[in-house]
Amino acid sequence: MKPATHKGFQALHELVRKKKLLLAAGTDKPVTASLASPDGLSDHELFQRAMSDVLPLGWSNNPLPTSLPVELQNLQGKEEQGLGLFAEFATGLGTVDMVASGEYIEGATHPRGHLLLEYLRAGHFAVQAHLDLHGLTVSQARHTLETFLRRSLHLDYGCVRIVHGRGRHSCDGHAVLKTQLQKWLSSRRIARYVVAYTSARMCDGGGGALYVLLRKNAR
User: Is the pLDDT of residue 96 over 60?
Assistant: First the structure.
């Protein structure tokens, strides 16, 4: 069996010969000259020559609608500003918002305490004594805390600072004493001595210490 062959042009020729198919009329459009680049013409001249018979549509003469300018953020300026703030903090000139630091805690064990939290947090109360609980076990820390608070009330102190640490030296990195202090200061046994407490300012220990505002006449 002979392979199939395509005789499209032969069939087209037969249709034209028998006048069953009429060819389109000729055009007067000149045939484009060869695009072979003569020597010495620049790219711009070659492009103009190739586009010489192209008719403009006309719409390109209409101006495009104006758009609002896009303002790009100055990322370099933001980086320089951030480095400046970091330098201020490193030299002790900058300030850190403890509330937004993630280490901040506060509590009010007396109805009046909620009104004083902002002032206590800002350090408006003079710290008259401080207690450092570093290195103590939980049971030792609680006993030492109760003794310290009773003595502070006996001496008529109004505000004290308790350093509990951040737990960086604990086995799991958890600030155990910080968590326990919140429970103790809110418990019935110790809350009777306390009006409110907040995390200290950075200069007084930041997230590793507490300001405790004591009640008057609670001893």
Answer: no
Domains located in the chain, CATH noted? 110-214 (3.30.1370.110)
Environment class of 210 (CB within 10 Å of its CB; exposed 0-12, middle 13-18, buried 19+): buried
pTM: 0.55
Closest by Cα among 141, 140, 192, 195 to 164: 141
Q: Do residues 129 and 157 lie in contact, with contact meaning Cβ atoms separated by under 8 Å? A: yes
In this structure, are strands 194-199 and 209-214 parallel, antiparallel, or unpaired? antiparallel
